[in-house]
Amino acid sequence: MPLLRIQLDTDRTTARRVIDLHRAGRTHPESRAAAEAEVWRKGYTPAAVPVFIGTTNGDPVRLVYEVEIYTDTTP
Length: 75
Known about the structure:
Elements: E1 3-9, H1 12-23, H2 29-41, E2 51-55, E3 62-68
Antiparallel strand pairs: 1-3, 2-3
């Protein structure tokens, strides 16, 4: 299945918390839900839960997720 990369604007404190949770083997439900909502907003149907990839180094900091999508439901 194809992957759609999603970047979510955030602040450095939240980004650090998401990274710490990821390293501990846990998830950040709010950002995961926001990534899934962004997939729907772009007109695609998620095939799996969003997977946290990391953060950007820019300003503003962005959380990066990859989400598997169904190809038969393109916008």
